[in-house]
Amino acid sequence: MVNAAPTPAQPSAAPGDGRHGGHDGGHKAVLEASDIRRALTRIAHEILERTKGGGDVVLVGVQTRGVTLARRLAERIGEVEGTSVPWGSLDVTMYRDDLRLKPARALGRTELPAGGIDGRVVVLVDDVLFSGRTVRAALDALSDLGRPRAVQLAILVDRGHRELPIRADYVGKNLPTSIRENVKVMLAEVDGHDAVLLGPAAASGPRHGGGVRTEVK
Amino acid sequence: MKRHLLSAGDLGKDDALLILDTAEELAQVADRSIKKLPTLRGRTVVNLFFEDSTRTRISFEAAAKRLSADVINFSAKGSSVSKGESLKDTALTLEAMGADGVVVRHNASGAPHRLANWVHGSVVNAGDGTHEHPTQALLDAFSMRRRLGNLEGRRVSIVGDILHSRVARSNVLLLHTLGAEVTVVAPPTLMPVAVDAWPCEVSYDLDAVIPKSDVVMMLRVQRERMNAAYFPTVREYSRRYGLNGDRMGRMPEDSIVMHPGPMNRGIEIAAEVADSQRSTIVEQVANGVTVRMAVLYLLLGGSESALGGAVPVPATASAAVSMERDA
Fold it and tell me: Please, which residues 14-53 of chain B have a Cβ atom closer than 8 Å to chain A?
């Protein structure tokens, strides 16, 4: 098995957890904490601009690190505009197209703000955009939860190698990578500190790298 | 890796908690306008029911359909079983139809174990004779957890026909695994001979147990299995082992009353108790669908079963073995 799937012993470890684990050997930081902060601030401004003040925006983070990023974006928008933007979390495990390639995984939490997503502009938030398969699953999951007026995509790192016709509306950093490389996003809330690391695909199973294209985002 | 769910005793603590946590996340699907997930699309689940059952079969059917599986219902009445087909031939027929999961209810204890050796799909025991009913125990544990939180150290009393009850056996095994303290209460005639080997306390006096129970689970008086005189009259049983309003008044605050259904109102449980705030009986039915969705997802959703991935817990495994002997 290439991916370090969450073990049943840790049900709280939502899907994809462990993807950032493994060795740090050979990884170099392409974004530092301050770069991530600036990128999120810029995305917050862009969202406000594109949605004309963000009046009907709902931020929906994809489990697990997307949720952290969605919360930070909501805070940032609050600081800039003085309004509070509703945010929620979305677990796409049940909608993934690679479910049959691994044992069933523990589920993460899907929690939408009280107002729901009907008629709102949903901004999906995730850490890394790679094959686009996670976003496809997220779009399917959203359509079962309601009918947004529009769906946009905010991403911290776009590393290329798309396998589906999907692109991001807001990008923190475009990061040209080799398919053999591995991108790790570390966030203080989950990993203790903020950084985006780029390195060779580790044998311990990076999710964002290696040759196994079917099980990556 | 455990491909089947045959006994609640097969589940280690990690497995049991994985199922309950998965069910917790799936519970919200029931509140949505679209109560369906695409996860088991293209998979076939056969409901193989050799014994009458409404709620369990419908519950499994709803669970499989909410996960988008194709469901084939097979009941022994009006099928080739009534023409004398054996369990094995029925199993091979299902195999040929490509069943990924087989949910089986049978009046013979151990039938699902036999079936598990003949089919390639996952077998889920939906009740076999007087042996086990693991998904009922899981939904009971789930219902308790939703009302009471963590089950560690909680005191659960299971009252009634322990001898014939597969629900009691599965609950004792699972609740023990989850760290609850279980007491079984019954008249001596309705207590299994080898109950000493079960991981629970035994009592013959309901009134002594009531004040120190966080959960009182009443079992149905199974008149269809009682071909001998286990108690003098229904009225006497009801007076000594039935849960009436007076007894419920002596239960601790926040404690709950459960019943796996179908109830005999006025025999093991009084109507005022069944309809009270403490009763979880209606919740149990709703939770049944959710928990069965979790079981089907974990067994059939991935490339292989997600259960049994962790190191098995020896204590519960040995308890399960000792129980199988007296089955």
Answer: 14-15, 17-18, 21-22, 25-26, 28, 32, 34, 36-39
Look at strands B101-106 and B44-49 and give their pairing.
Answer: parallel
Q: Which CATH architecture has domain A34-178?
A: 3-Layer(aba) Sandwich (3.40)
Give the SS3 label for residue B73: strand
Question: Which sequence spans correspond to the domains of chain B?
Answer: 8-133+284-326, 134-280
pTM of the model: 0.87
pLDDT in tens, A99-112: 999 999 899 999 99
Report the chain B residue with the minimal C-alpha distance to residue A9: B14
> Which value does ipTM take for this structure?
0.82
- Measure A84 CA to nearest chain B CA, in Å: 25
Q: Please choose, from the candidates B115, B111, B209, B122, the residue with its C-alpha nearest in 3D space to the C-alpha of residue B159.
A: B209
Q: Distance from A11 to chain B by nearest Cα, in Å?
A: 6
B21–A107 CB contact, under 8 Å: yes
Per-residue pLDDT reduced to its tens digit, B54-98: 889 999 999 999 999 999 998 877 677 777 788 888 888 888 888
Chain B CA closest to residue A105:
B306
**B262 among annotated binding-site residues:** yes
Q: Do domains B8-133+284-326 and B134-280 have the same CATH topology?
A: yes
